Known about the structure:
By secondary structure, this protein is of the alpha/beta class. The protein contains twelve helices and nine strands. The protein folds into two domains: 4-202, 2-enoyl-CoA Hydratase, Chain A, domain 1 (Alpha-Beta Complex); 205-256, Lyase 2-enoyl-coa Hydratase, Chain  A, domain 2, CATH 1.10.12. The protein has helices at residues 28-40, 65-72, 76-80, 90-100, 116-122, 150-153, 160-169, 175-181, 191-203, 207-222, 227-241, 245-256; strands at residues 4-9, 12-17, 49-54, 105-109, 112-114, 126-129, 134-136, 173-174, 186-187. The chain is globular, with a radius of gyration of 19 Å. Belongs to the enoyl-CoA hydratase/isomerase family.
Amino acid sequence: MARVSVEIKDHIAHVRLTRGDKMNALDQAMFDGIIDAGEGLMDNEDVRVVVLSGEGKSFCAGLDVMSFAALAGQDPVARIMPRTHGNANDAQQVAMVWRKLKVPVIAALQGVAFGGGCQLALGADIRFAAPGTKMAIMEMKWGLIPDMGGMALLPHLVRSDVLRRLTYTAAPIEAEQALAWGLVTEIVDDPLAAAIALAEEIAGKSPSAVQAAKALIGYAEEHMDDVDAVLLEESRAQAELIGKPHQMEVIAANIQKRKPVFK
């Protein structure tokens, strides 16, 4: 059965995990569905923003416990070491595909975001969470480490001591603590409504400028110790925007006090 739905409307791709009866737990079909959804949006020029959510009471409870038995019978080296998606394996691509998208991704969290579900959420640019939402780097509970892109994402979000505590203990934290530690952007009563509202706002901005901004932020995060490289990339990206059709339309719309229309 389909695990993920994708609906594109008004330049916003609504990507929804649809296994609500199982708290959107991750089985192989869910892995495949999430990757297919993300990669299917890569070259869609109509999409300017993605809203990522999960149906039912929880965003994603992490790996389906029934999947552990199937995984235990496989050769772990053969299963996880091949790079099947550029720099990532299948499990890592579930989270990293959203960072690889050229458009912003906004996640709406409720219930729990545990283990792989937490790492999936971290792949988004921005995360809204409902009050009472719980998050956890859950892998240590099963004698494992985060292996779905968590270590490529978490060091940019939280302090080293916080990362170590979360990883070593597997202890769930409430949304308020997640907000204080940098895992959540904002706590709101209706995270999906907030995500859609923000997506609509971003979709009204210059598509080329938004995409350039996401790419530049990613570059800056990856080259934090090389200020010269970041400054040069900043200038290069700006030069690509100045005077181009989208930027000229923004200027015209501002002068004429209207909404811009991008082609």
